[in-house]
Design a protein that fits this description.
The structure is a single chain. By secondary structure, the protein is mainly β. The protein contains 2 helices and 18 strands. Strands 1, 5, 6, 8, 12, 13, 14 and 18 form an 8-stranded antiparallel β-sheet that branches. A 5-stranded antiparallel β-sheet has the order 7-15-9-10-11, with no helix packed on it. Strands 2-3-4 form a 3-stranded antiparallel β-sheet, with no helix packed on it. The longest helix has 15 residues, at 229-243. The radius of gyration is 17 Å and the shape is globular.
């Protein structure tokens, strides 16, 4: 008799993303000890990776709020659009490979190009609501691009404008680029451009060029290497178990 898939799925406890190695940043909204509130909104979201890459927001009107017990009984952060965002300075080595993983529920109701997790100088991680590469038509998409030119790679999601479903999205940049939604490979458009060797820049949540995404954000992980398929799935399934999201 084959073993039940439930027995093969990593449990929400007993695993730590740091055990994989090369964890560059980890932000977990369900860990209340990492979230600093000022006047009821979030001024700082601390990094659990041990690298002290803490997100901050100095302007009160631009701070996200906490949605208590919003998903699987756990807190998430509410980024409600313009001008709510958080950011931090970061020097990131890219050419050696990197992996971005984000747990979120997209709340945008208009068909606009808005990032969910972005680095300056055209080094982007997770994006939704983007136009296609030729900028001819707009469709709701989810994916990423990691390059130093205006050429971008997008990953198709669906054609509807609103997708409030909770999802785990991963972008892996190594010798090739791979993009995954809830553990499933997403169709890619052609990629052009070269990975930058390193970048001293700013990492932003839900903001780029004065465009602000509306999203509920639960967790973000960044690894300074391209995870193997087994490593990626282990993290995705752990996150799925933790946040009540089915991972394929």
């Amino acid at each position: 008799m084959p073993m039940s898939p439930r027995l093969l799925r990593p449990r929400a406890t007993g695993f730590d993303p740091r055990s994989i190695g090369s964890l560059a940043g980890w932000w977990d909204a369900s860990d209340r000890s990492t979230v600093t509130l000022v006047s009821g909104v979030v001024s700082q979201w601390n990094d659990k990776s041990g690298n002290s890459r803490n997100f901050t927001q100095s302007t009160g009107a631009n701070r996200p709020s906490v949605l208590t017990a919003q998903r699987s009984g756990k807190d998430v952060l509410n980024f409600g659009g313009s001008p709510v965002t958080m950011n931090q300075s970061w020097t990131l080595q890219l050419r050696g490979g990197n992996t971005w993983i984000m747990v979120f529920s997209y709340q945008e109701t208009t068909n606009v190009e808005v990032p969910l997790l972005r680095m300056d100088v055209n080094v982007n991680a997770i994006q939704k609501g983007a136009s296609n590469a030729a900028n001819v038509s707009r469709r709701n998409r989810i994916g990423s691009f990691v390059n130093n030119t205006s050429s971008t790679l997008f990953v198709a999601d669906q054609t509807s404008d609103v997708d409030s479903n909770w999802q785990v999205v991963s972008s892996v940049a190594g010798a090739t680029l791979g993009h995954y939604k809830n553990g499933t490979t997403q169709t890619e458009t052609a990629f052009s451009g070269t990975l930058v060797s390193s970048s001293s820049t700013t990492l932003r949540v839900c903001e780029a060029a004065l465009a602000y995404a509306k999203a509920h954000v639960a967790e973000i992980l960044v690894f300074s290497k391209a995870l193997t398929a087994a490593e990626r799935l282990r993290v995705e399934r752990w996150l799925g178990g933790k946040w009540g999201i089915t991972i394929g």
